[in-house]
Structures are given as structure tokens and as C-alpha cells.
Sequence to fold (464 residues):
Amino acid sequence: MSENRAELNRNLAQMLKGGVIMDVTTPEQAKIAEDAGACAVMALERIPADIRAAGGVSRMSDPAMIRGIQEAVSIPVMAKCRIGHIAEARVLQAIEIDYIDESEVLSPADDLYHIDKNAFDVPFVCGARDLGEALRRIGEGASMIRTKGEPGTGDVVQAVRHMRKMQSEIRRIQFLRPDELFEAAKQLAAPLALVEYVHANGKLPVVNFAAGGVATPADAALMMELGAEGVFVGSGIFKSGDPAKRAAAIVKAVTNWQDAKLIAELSANLGEAMVGINADEIQTIMEERGK
Amino acid sequence: MFRSAGAETFEIRQLADLKRPMDALVLPGGESTVQGKLLRELGLFAPLRAKILAGLPVFATCAGLILLAERLVDDPTVWFGVLPVTVRRNAYGRQLGSFACRGPIGPDDNVPQAFIRAPGIEDVGPEVEILSTYNGRPTGVRYKNLTAFAWHPELTTDLRVARRFLDGLRAAD
Fold:
């Protein structure tokens, strides 16, 4: 991938900033998401809550299903490949997906190596739980980062933990002496050049969204308060009582996350939220996948 | 970009923000469907359109160009509908079709231009001035108080386009 292409891919994420990316499984859901104001959709066969319920091995979606969604909407379409599954990523690039999510929500294909994303022209987003993980993924070529959270639970606690950890580590790096950055890079197990970038700029070199457990407009506003530049909502929308209304409410909550009065209005009469699973009670810990 | 070029800026997120005095309006990149919908539902659409029609200078990029256009190809949607051009959304295809190039804009040469899932300008009205082109097709236009680009001046560190716009505002004062 040329430097030029890497820049263009990071720039697309800039255009998504302040927006909401929604998981959809059909062209109809994609249309509902677009009409509700989603800035992009994630096409997948099963949303995380159902993947969790079904168990077994979870893989890249059927390209025909992804194409159906690409044809239904004009906003960017993302799709997930398994961690380390180079061939699935190539398939997604071949069908001209706008963004690949190398995702812990699917069963990992490789328990050691992530994909060398620098070798692709299409952009990648990756999950991270802390600064070191984020910088390792960026070093591999990710042009957007999201917190991992714990997908498919409707429990926001892990997303909060990951975002707080990342932001406090960024602040710590910012105030180190330059001669302390070598040791910091060693401790974070991250490329020195990227640690130096964080030191100089006080932020990641790519856009950073929140994901994994966001279910309500207030959850989304909380993640923005903690430093997210936008939000992924997976199971939270189409597992709820009134998806169109909830989707639109979460979009507006992200745009005006500081306006509690508006969020109060948006939160009223939304119908049933997704049935939450307490993150401490689950068997499959997706955030542990790929470090 | 305009802040770096020496202007004071603020974001318009709700109706109360429109009460603040402004010399010009920036319609930035993003997804036009999202921006248009939020402008409508947050009650910003009509007051902003009135300001634009009253002559408030506008600087629009990418999605902003779509919001201003009078016509969209294969899409009946019209947002502000104040700029006499026909625009095709995602004219260069999906993200793999995104590209960067350099070209002249007025007196400035070699200005970096990033096209991200960019719209194309297919047709322009007679009074529309063409500011930039790519492969002979217009990619930047000016009409009365409206300046619009299909690409993103805000994604580069080159401030010449922003400075020209600010100089134009000062000259008009």
C-alpha cells in the first residue's frame, strides 16, 4: 500500500467522525440504518448477540449478502473478516468493500498473527483494549481503531474500561520526557514512531471509535464524553423493540452528546432496549481474542 | 483549516448555535444523507437556507457540495438546492476509487486535492465559475456567495484555498 493510499484510507475515517456505524444483516435493515442517519453500515450475517447465542465457528459473511447491502445504500459499507484470515480479507477487497473490520467478534483464524494490513489497498478498522494494542494494529496498517468492549452483551462496562484506559495511557505518554519514550514503547510493545506521535499530538494517528455494548442514546453519549470520536452499535439496534427510532435517537445523541436535555427527550419512549447480558456472566470473552 | 488560516470558528450542532454572529458558513465533508437528515430534524435546515439565500458566504466540500446542488443524478433528493449544478454522488466509486492529485486553483499552482468517495459535477449553469478540474471535468465551482469543491481542502496542510476564501470575505467587507 502506498503512503498516498494509507492517507486516503485514514481520511475516509475522518469523514465518519461524529457518526454512528450500525450492524445490519439484510438490505432492509441497511436501509433503516441509512434513513436513521448512520454514517456507515457493517454488513454481517449474524449480529454479535446471535453469534454469542449460536456458538460454534463464526466466519466472514456470504459475499452475495454483502453485495445486496452495498446495492441498497449509498453510505460506506464495512464487513468483518476473521483475525489473521488473509484470504477472507482479500475476498472482501475483491468485492470493493469500503472498510474491513478484522474483528474479534468472529472466531479468530490465527491465534498469533494479525493480517499485514499495509499489504492491502482497502482500509481496515481493528479493535483494541488499550494503547499498546491500538498502536500495534496501526503499525500493521489499520487506518481506524475502535474499542473492543464486549460485543453482543448490551453491557457498556468493557467499552468504558477500554476507552478510559486508552485515553489515560495517551495522557501519560504525552507528559513523559522524550528520553522516556523508548522504555514506554517497550512496555506498550508498540512501534516507537507511533509512541512518539502520541507524545507529540496527544491522540492516536487515526480516528478512534467506541464499540462493544452500546445500547442506548445515553450509552453513546457516555462514550463520546470519554473521548470516542464516534460509535459502533452492533446488536443494540436490531435487537431492540423499535430499531428505526432507537437508531435515529443514537445518531442524534452522538451529534449532541453534551446536551442532556436533548438526550432525555431522545431516550423517552424508545421501547424495549436489547436484553442485556451482564458482561461478568458470559462464557465467550471476545475481547480476549487477538492482542 | 480556517482556524489554522487565522479565522475564528465554531460548530453548528443545534439551533442555539445559529444565534452567534458569523461571517461565513462552512459545510464540511461527511455523509450528505446524515448531514441533511440531522439539519432537518434538529430544525437547522430552514434558518440556514434562509441565511444562504440572503447572501451568507458558504464554503462547501464534498458532502457540502451535494447539500448545495440543485440536482442529483439518479436521486430525487434536493437539500438546499441553491447551486445551479448537477452532481453525481460517489462518482468515482467506492473507497478503492478514492484518489489524490495536484492541480491549479486560480492563481495557485500544484494544490493537493484528496477525493474521498467523492461526488462528480456533471453539469454547471451558465453563471457558474469553474475553479478546479480533474480530467477536464469541473471539481470546484463558485456561484454568487457559494464556493464548493468535490474534494477536501480541509484534509491537507495546504492553506492556500482557505486563505483565498478568507481574503475574499475581507475584500467584500
User: Anything to note?
Assistant: The domain at 15-172 of chain B is CATH 3.40.50.880 (Rossmann fold).
